[in-house]
Design goal:
Length: about 120
């Protein structure tokens, strides 16, 4: 059974950094595409970054140059390094996984498995 657990969220000031981790258990991450999504209060869940089975990555325009997604298949972990954080980055962050990507990576309906989320709060 696929199980995802996020960690690393917290409260930081604008300009600060956080590193989110997503621990996967019960399956091998090298067989899945994985992504980070976020959802702020009153807003829809949106794609932040993804790393695909072939190792390639994609980012939302709003985080390009500031966030870096990576996957350690040996440890079965997914990471999101977030630098130069802005108040607009405040949201609950979720990791997700899917074995076969059927649509666009930033569409949350394309992912099959989800963690419970970790809160990121950026103050000005």
């Amino acid at each position: 059974q696929v199980h995802l657990v996020e960690s690393g969220g917290g409260s930081v000031q604008a300009g600060g950094s956080l590193r989110l981790s997503c621990a996967a258990s019960g399956w091998r991450t090298d067989r899945y595409s994985m992504g980070w999504f976020r959802q702020a209060p009153g807003k829809e869940r949106e794609g932040v970054a993804a790393v695909f089975r072939d190792g390639s990555t994609s980012y939302a325009d709003s985080v390009k140059g500031r966030f870096t997604v990576s996957k350690d298949n040996a440890k079965n972990n997914l990471y999101l390094q977030m630098n130069s954080l802005k108040p607009a980055d405040t949201a609950m962050y979720y990791c997700a996984a899917v074995m076969m990507m059927g649509g666009t990576w930033y569409d949350p309906t394309g992912f099959s498995y989800w963690g419970q989320g970790t809160q990121v709060t950026v103050s000005s």
